[in-house]
Amino acid sequence: MRLNTFYLINFLILILIYNVYSVNSVKLKGVTIEVTPYLYIRNNQFSGYCVDVMNEISKIAGFNYSLYKAPDGRHGEVSPTGAINGIIFEVYNKAADFGIADLTVSESRKRYVDFSLPIMNLSVSALIHKTNAEYIEYFKDLPRQTRIRY
After folding, report:
1. How far is residue 48's CA from residue 25's CA, in Å, rounded to a whole number?
2. CA 67: distance to chain centroid?
3. b/e sequence 108-139, b meaning 16+ C-beta within 10 Å
4. Angstrom distances, CA of residue 67 to CA of 101, 124, 126
5. Helix segments in 28-148, DSSP class H
6. What sequence ranges are listed for the domain Ionotropic glutamate receptor L-glutamate and glycine-binding (predicted)?
7. Which domains does the chain show, CATH number per domain?
8. Sign of the C-alpha dihedral, residues 103, 109, 112, 117?
9. Residues 6+ apart with CB under 8 A from 65
10. What pLDDT digit, counting tens, does each position of 56-109 carry?
11. Is 99 exposed, middle or buried (0-12, 13-18, 19+ CB in 10 A)?
């Protein structure tokens, strides 16, 4: 993965709800994978940040939900032939109403599902000593500097 596409990883919820006109008393089915520290699965019980977020959303919106683990344990890759798997596959094929995980939004995934806005953004940063930072503001500046040895 190239560095400039890696600097921002979207932690998000993707939600697709088909033919649901009133969420009161609706029970939605969600798919996820275990990815610490955001989601833990112990004795078929789900916990962690993602579950806490979904619990609050369900209280506010007035719906119930259940979670299951994606059968293949994958986020959802799209092969060169267009085959999909993981969470993306489960939501696209309507086995699940929504998916929740630390998913990166990509154009190939967006062909199959809709994404919500991220609920958390993570970025990669580096720390260097101030005396070496005169001309380094971004990663792209590193090749032009002469003071730091690799």
Report:
1. 24
2. 16
3. ebeebbebeebeeeeeeeeeeeeeeeeebeee
4. 11, 30, 37
5. 49-61, 86-92, 107-110
6. 37-93
7. 3-119 (3.40.190.10)
8. positive
9. 27, 28, 29, 30, 54, 58, 97, 98
10. 888 887 889 999 999 999 999 989 998 999 999 999 999 999 999 888 888 899
11. buried
- Rounded to whole angstroms, the Cα distance separating 49 from 47 reads 7
CA distance 115 to 16: 8
Distances in Å between the Cα of 105 and the Cα atoms of 52, 74, 96 are 22, 15, 19
Residue showing tokens 């719906």: 63
Rounded distance, CA 15 to CA 48, Å?
18
Which helix (H) or strand (E) segment holds residue 16: the answer is none
